Every structure is written in structure tokens, then in C-alpha cells.
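Here is one chain, start to finish.
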Amino acid sequence: MRTDALDYPLPEELIAQSPVERRDEARLLVLDRADESMRVDVFRNINHYLAAGDCLVVNDTRVIRARLRAKKTSGGNVEVFLLHEEEPGAWTALVRPSGKVRPGTTLQLPGNVKVVVGEHLGEGRRRVTFSESEVIGLLERIGEIPLPPYIHRARQDPVDAERYQTVYARTGGAVAAPTAGLHYTEAVLASLGEQGVRRATLTLHVGYGTFKPITAERLEDHVVESEDFVLPEETAALLNETRRERGRIVAVGTTATRVLETQFWDGKFHAGWGKTSKYIYPPYSFQAVDVLQTNFHLPKSSLLALVCAFAGVEFVMRAYEFAVRERFRFYSYGDTMLIL
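Its structure:
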């Protein structure tokens, strides 16, 4: 399949630069695959489309403060964007401007913390080593929330520290939020629970590769970067029980979907942990997911490819055209859709 099939025009003003005032006030576009119908609603009404016995699967990853402002001994400013911890104190990172930072250069961070920039690893990545081994705690003190590259602001708003996390974020390790979950409030989750909708949790630490566009002419030639995941025993048990009782598995986001499809075989879900580079694109036969809730994604992205695989290319692209026409808000801080 040609990648161009996942392209669409998007006016820049529809790219949400800030969240709506309340998480659950985002608009909800409900797609029904059975008759290819579309309905506009508000996210807080998502319980109207789910039923007792369904199981909502959420990704509890927490976004780390991965963006650091450093200085060279000469006084030049350098940005260090942490991507993945290789071992205590040593990370893979993007260093900007990379060309002006030689291997072996020591940078100064706030709090008298030093970081040494190592060799080039390709695609702008560098290995960096900190003077402290407990980096996650350090980031909470001196790091910034790494907002997506399509959010253009001169500086961060203090609200980002809260709103670029899900209310159920627990396990630190992501450099981008699982944005489908940003719409849930404690009230919405409580309402679903009272209705008899179960909730299961897994973890996938979203990497910077989530923003990587598909540059290959054919979808099948693209490679998705691997990301760390955990699917706990109790989650696998609850999902298998849900299936036995004929409830639906409702995946909150493409990240949860990829883990569920990775850990489903022989007719059941399996607990496990490791890395997944699961890449889902049309045609694909879903085994683990019955309902998908997801935000609106970038053109020619692996995330949009997954959504098209779930609901059909023509139907999804028609829905995107409708969303543009109706002035929906796009991307991380934007509106969302529910695909039944």
C-alpha cells in the first residue's frame, strides 16, 4: 500500500496548541464500522457507547521531564533531549546543535550537575553520561516536560506539567504522552466503573519515534522503533476473563493497542515484558482489540496506519475530512474519536 494514501490536508490553526479547559470537554467523533456512520459527541459521554462487561485498557506510563537546558564551558546553550536509559546514569539523547558538540564535551546543567556527550549514534542521537546515576529524580528538579514538536510556544505553560499527563500516569519512562488517555477525568472513570465497565492497566513507554513520519513510498517498508512494555499478570487474567464473558476489549490509544496485539496468541492474552516494535498497517486482522479510542494523528504516520487498519482506509480518511471540515482540534491536545 502506498504511504500517500494516508496523507490529508490540515490547516495549521487546527493543530491544538493548548488543552481545553476541562479534559472531558474535548469533542468525540464516534465511528461505527458496521454501517460506516459518524456521530459527534462530547468525551464525557463516552459511557453512552460502552457497556457493563467491557474492559477499558489504559497505558499508565508517565512522561518524564526529558528536556534539559545545558551550557558549554564556552557559554553556548545546548539542549539535551533524553530518549532512553541504557544503564544507570547513561542515556541515549538528542543533542542540539549536535554538530557543535564534540564527543567528550562536558556540559553544565543546573544544580552543578554535569553531563558528558559521547559518540554519534546516528539519526542525531548521542550517548550522554551524567555525573549522577539517579537521573529520573534529577529530571524532576531541573528538566522540562517534552511537548511535541508541533506545539509551538515561546515557553511552557505551568499547566503542561499536569495536562500532558494522564490522571492515571504512574510509571515514569515515556518522552511523549499516550494522548488518547488525556481526556479521562476521575469522574469519567468513576462513571464507567459504576456502569460495570472494568479497567485494566499496562505500560508502554512512548518513545520519540512516535513522531517519526513514514518516509518510505510503501507502508510495509517502514520500521517502527522498539519501545519498552509491561503487561501484568492481573491484566492478562482480567482480559481473558472479559473475553470468556463476551465483553469487549476497549483499547485507549495506539500504544495500548500495540501491546495487546503483541501479547495475544493462541486465543488468549499473555502477561510479559520486554520491547515491542509491533507495526500495524493495512491489511491487518486484529485479534486482541474490539473497540479503539484514539486521537487524530499526523498524516503519513504509523499511528494513522494503525487506525486505518482497524477501521478501513477509506472510512478513516473520510472521517478525517469530516473532522477538518467541522473544525475538530488535532493531535496531542486535540479532540478524539471512538471506533466501534
